[in-house]
Amino acid sequence: xxxxxxARTTEGPIGIITLNRPEALNALNxxxxxxxxxxxxxxxxxxxxxxxxxxxxxxxxxxxxxIKEMAEMTAVQMAMTGHFFPLWDKVGRFPKPIVGALSGFVxxxxxxxxxxxxxxxxxxxxxxxxxxxxxxxxxxxxGTQRLTRTVGKYxxxxxxxxxxxxxxxxxxxxxxxxxxxxxEAFLSEAKKVASEIASKSPVAVRQxxxxxxxxxxxxxxxxxxxxxxxxYLLFASEDxxxxxxxxxxxxxxxxxxx
Length: 258
Description:
Low-confidence stretches: none
Order of helices and strands: EEHEEHHHEEHEEHHEHEHHHH
Radius of gyration: 19 Å
Oligomer: single chain
Strand order of the largest sheet: 1-2-3-5-7-10
CATH architecture of the largest domain: Alpha-Beta Complex
Mean pLDDT: 92
Strand content: 15-25%
Number of domains: 2
Number of strands: 10
Helix content: 40-55%
Structural class: alpha/beta
CATH class of the largest domain: Alpha Beta
């Protein structure tokens, strides 16, 4: 499809989605949601794409939902249209790893989109927050759940109930972002992380991502059983054979994704 609010490109095995509504600080609207879902669907179907990067600009990853679009919507309209929920479902269940490249404002729905990714690289100028309380609502795209699981009850309560933003270094200390880099390097660093992931076995990467995500949903005993099943399953893959053979032959493996 033709994209008007995002850019979709590829660099080798990396699919790159760039949010592109600079006049609105990359605020999420219905069109952007549809285009993000379309781009992710195309990358999911493309076996040559092994990892995806979602980025914004230096000024803003995303300042949140487009309030102008939401202001007149009723509860029934929100429920009937699903609003942004198809996007949260798509990103949250995406089988390939997603690296979020963050800079500037990462607020509201923008933070919820970021927290749906798997690895977050942030510039030192990044400001993260869930300020929905300031406009009389609350997070509705996973913010209360993912933020609490990441930073704990008390910090999540503070951020959500006051709307307070935190900087990149504090977010790193809390485990909310993976690494912090200078502003000019946030996108290149995210691509570097994505390239490293893309060089690994696609089969093992998918299974490992699935296991880590399940750790947030399962008790320890069930999680260990689930991990063990996936571990055994990988011993039937061609990538396992190639990886171990390459290790013994002291060469770089050539993974096929089978």
